[in-house]
Every structure is written in structure tokens, then in C-alpha cells.
TrEMBL record:
This protein's name: Oxidoreductase N-terminal domain-containing protein
Organism: Nelumbo nucifera
Any one GO molecular-function label of the UniProt entry: oxidoreductase activity, acting on the CH-CH group of donors, NAD or NADP as acceptor
Lineage: Eukaryota, Viridiplantae, Streptophyta, Embryophyta, Tracheophyta
Keywords recorded for this protein, A-Z: Oxidoreductase
Recorded superkingdom: Eukaryota
InterPro entries tied to this protein: ADH_N_2, GroES-like_sf, MDR_fam
Residues covered by the Oxidoreductase N-terminal domain: 10-78
Name of a matching Pfam family: ADH_N_2
């Protein structure tokens, strides 16, 4: 894929920090477009996600931590946090 095709993209972004179990209202669905481009010399692959799962590890990162931890909380609205398809 030298040139890269442009495709529509959906993302689930963190809208609010979570207290307890995550709810749909804690997230927002964003749409846009991305270039499907992998460098010629790269051995990378493109993957399309079909499902989003929030495991217990992610729940901790979805909360606003009041005390320092070895991991940071996710950034609200950051597109590098969750999922793109």
C-alpha cells in the first residue's frame, strides 16, 4: 500500500471519567477519515476492529486518579486512547 486509500473511520472516545462501571454515556462516537498507508519497508499490518471491549485494566485508566500511579489516566477525548475501525 504505497499511496494509501482514504477510508471513513469511527472512533470511540472517552467523554467523561468513569466512576464504577463504564456506561455508554461516558463515551462518544466520532467519525472521520484516515489514510490506509503502511511504509514500503515496514512489516506492519492494518487491522480492522469489529468489537470494543473494556476489560478491568481499562476501567482503572478510565477513572481520574487522585493519587500518583504507575499508569496515567486516559486523556478525555484523545483519539489515541481507544479504538479506531
Amino acid at each position: 500500500m504505497a499511496k494509501g486509500e482514504e477510508v471513513r473511520n469511527k472512533q470511540v472516545l472517552l467523554k467523561h471519567y468513569v466512576t464504577g462501571f463504564p456506561k455508554e454515556t461516558d463515551m462518544v462516537l466520532s467519525t472521520g477519515s484516515i489514510q490506509l498507508k503502511v511504509p514500503e519497508s515496514s512489516k506492519a499490518v492494518l487491522v480492522k476492529n469489529l468489537y470494543l471491549s473494556c476489560d478491568p485494566y481499562m476501567r482503572v485508566r478510565m477513572a481520574k486518579l487522585e493519587i500518583p500511579s504507575y499508569i496515567d489516566s486516559f486523556e478525555l477525548g484523545s483519539e489515541r486512547v481507544f479504538f479506531s475501525s
